[in-house]
Design a protein that fits this description.
eight-stranded parallel beta sheet, 32 strands, alpha/beta, single chain, Immunoglobulin-like, 562 residues, TIM Barrel, 3 domains, Jelly Rolls
């Protein structure tokens, strides 16, 4: 069994002490409390519903349970004072045991977590066991586009471990976290370190050369001959931080995201200049691994391809990726709009797809309408807001937070936008992408989704205007579709020539003229096909690019401010 995702999983806080626990695990699948179990070998970190796991023969039901087990061996040389067991993501609820003793539990299917297992492990062989349940769309937890009855824009659900599992051992004064805040207006970077140590030394590196040094738990460091980060010049600086017992590496980029005026319109600014965000909706589903990318190389390859096509931004849609995906965006130079993962009750089509087209408006403080009556689900979303911002705070490329999408699990967006601004005032906020906009007092952006109508922008809009979803032009690629008989797309074309002709007209005749009318960003649907949804730039298996590369480059080159 080939082990995938063996790279150090956290590039923004990297140390040498590391044991990867991906690979073959034992898995049992059964109704909760039942003695009748089915046993499998599973390739972690792929979910059992995926083909890449080596299983792919069942979908975990709400009344069922997964039990993962494997042994791992520890050498004396590896162990320091504290040993931490990390999970990149487990969907949804789990309890962990080491050598038969419970070490902790966790709820939340998209965020990393860890347990201090120092008092549970031993030199030599150890056994880990993880029990997992997942209500999928029968619950109110954050789940994104997973649905037990998949189809159309709703996809095969997954459960269990779906990101890297790993161990590290550290000293008591280890560096627990760092917060890096660049300020291009003062040519400096602020670094805050979370540690039990009374002090730390910090070096800033440009390549292998140390260009600045400082010490302390919080310090502001001038950057000599500062070079700005942008998609055109993704310049990264290195950081080396040391306490008496710990050393970590990190990185940052000198960049600034803001809003300013360009003539009579508000615009998105990058590094104090108007900058048009030309991007794609990126759902991060893979034909073999579902939400888990095949490997690090495929993540990197896809980001490179989208840049080669001429795009400068990806909207990560209702998903949080492994941290290495963000690292590749940072170093390759592509902006990221990050959605929070939505939850709540059922997403009723007539409310989130039909009513908005007749101009229906509602206040999202009325929890019943958008199925957010469950208080625990609302509180869990708010808690995960904090965790998501903390997880991605140092991501150089992350320019826009997207709080809610098309009414899915939407509630209290004005209040939560205020909360988000307090958590992170360095990025722009799209409170309500698509519809059920709560007015100019909430979002930084007027965020439009236009699929079946001619592209247009509102007049006299005081906020930044963005087209946060459009297009969805679709082509069935023989031999590269999920289902030959079931196809979904917003506009299905018969062949490549028709697809490219229609796409050219959409960009040249409809989109480009809107830049001079106030449009500040456009997000075409989408990077790849997903199951029977065939509106991707590439096919679901990533084997066919549906468009001519030169055509895409030509058209994308027109999406800049004169």
């Amino acid at each position: 069994m080939k082990i995938s995702h063996t790279e150090y999983p956290r590039p923004q806080l990297e140390r040498d002490s590391y044991i990867n626990l991906n690979g073959e695990w034992n898995l049992s699948h059964s109704p909760i409390g039942s003695e009748i179990k089915k046993h499998y070998k599973i390739n972690v970190p792929f979910s059992p519903e995926s083909n890449a796991s080596g299983i792919g023969s069942f979908i975990l039901q709400p009344e069922e349970e997964l039990v993962y087990e494997r042994e791992f061996e520890l050498q004396t040389a590896f162990l320091k004072e504290i040993t931490l067991l990390h999970f990149g993501a487990v969907d949804y609820s789990c309890i962990c045991y080491i050598n038969g003793k419970e070490v902790g539990s966790h709820k939340g299917g998209f965020l990393p977590f860890y347990f201090d297992v120092s008092s549970y492990i031993k030199i030599g062989k150890n056994e880990i066991q993880l029990k997992v349940t997942d209500p999928t769309d029968t619950g109110h937890q954050s789940r994104g586009k997973q649905k037990l009855k998949r189809g159309g824009i709703w996809y095969t659900p997954q459960s269990g471990i779906w990101q890297t599992v790993w161990l590290e051992s550290v000293s008591k004064d280890y560096i627990q976290d760092i917060k890096i805040t660049p300020n291009i207006d003062t040519n400096s970077v602020n670094i805050q370190i979370t540690t039990n140590s009374s002090t730390a030394t910090i070096q800033i590196l440009d390549g292998d050369s140390v260009i600045a040094e400082s010490s302390g738990i919080e310090t502001n460091i001038p950057i000599p001959n500062m070079e700005l980060w942008s998609p055109e010049n993704p310049k990264l600086y290195g950081i080396l931080i040391k306490t008496s017992g710990d050393t970590v590496k990190s990185y940052f980029g000198m960049r600034k995201f803001s809003i300013g005026f360009d003539g009579k319109f508000k615009r998105l600014f990058l590094n104090n200049q108007p900058y048009f965000h030309n991007g794609l909706l990126d759902q991060g589903y893979w034909s073999e691994g579902l939400l888990t990318p095949p490997n690090d190389e495929e993540m990197e390859k896809e980001i490179k391809l989208m840049k080669d096509l001429g795009f400068n931004m990806l909207r990560k849609h209702i998903k949080i990726e492994p941290m290495r995906w963000y690292y590749h965006c940072d170093r390759l130079g592509i902006l990221v709009w990050q959605d929070f993962v939505c939850g709540g009750g059922a997403y009723e089509t007539w409310k989130v797809a039909y009513l908005p087209f007749i101009g229906w408006k509602t206040k999202d403080t009325k929890y019943k309408f958008l199925n957010r009556r469950d208080e625990n689900g609302r509180n869990e979303f708010i808690k995960e807001m904090d965790q998501t911002v903390n997880l991605l705070k140092n991501t150089v490329s992350l320019s826009v937070w997207v709080l809610f999408n098309e009414g899915w699990g939407q509630f209290d967006s004005i209040q939560l936008t205020d909360k988000l601004r307090k958590l992170d005032n360095t990025r722009t906020i799209d409170s309500v992408s698509g519809w059920y906009d709560q007015g100019k007092g909430s979002s930084d952006l007027k965020s439009l989704h236009l699929y079946y109508q001619k592209l247009k922008v509102p007049k006299n809009e005081p906020r930044v205007i963005v087209l946060s979803e459009f297009g969805g032009y679709s082509l069935k690629t023989e031999g590269h579709v999920y289902d030959e008989n079931k196809l979904f797309g917003y506009k299905i074309l018969p062949d490549k020539q028709s697809l490219e002709k229609e796409y050219r007209s959409l960009i040249e005749d409809q989109l480009v003229p809107l830049l001079s009318k106030g449009l500040s960003a456009s997000i075409y649907t989408q990077v790849s096909d997903v199951e029977e949804e065939i509106n991707g730039i590439v096919t679901y298996d990533r084997k066919v690019v549906k468009f001519d590369l030169e055509l895409m480059r030509e058209l994308n080159a027109k999406l800049i401010y004169e």
